[in-house]
Amino acid sequence: MEKIIKEGAFLVDVRTPAEFAEGNVKGSTNIPLDQVASHLEKFKGKKHIIVFCRSGNRSGQAKMILEQNGFKNVTNGGTWQDVKEAIRK
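Request: output the structure for the sequence above.
Response:
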């Protein structure tokens, strides 16, 4: 994951706006899970997409939604803390 982050992956936090406001990954975009399907245009043209949330559960669902819509470059980053840690490496 560190490698694709360094390559400029599109970092998407699929938690609620309230959760995102409590703490987030610098440079990440907040697209709550229930809005992923209606914001597919934001994912188009991205070389790598990393989705993450609080536990890895919602990001797993977001990954499935994106893959069902033809995106093949999606990584479930797990928790937002995991992604934050990966950026520091």
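The longest helix spans residues 57-68.
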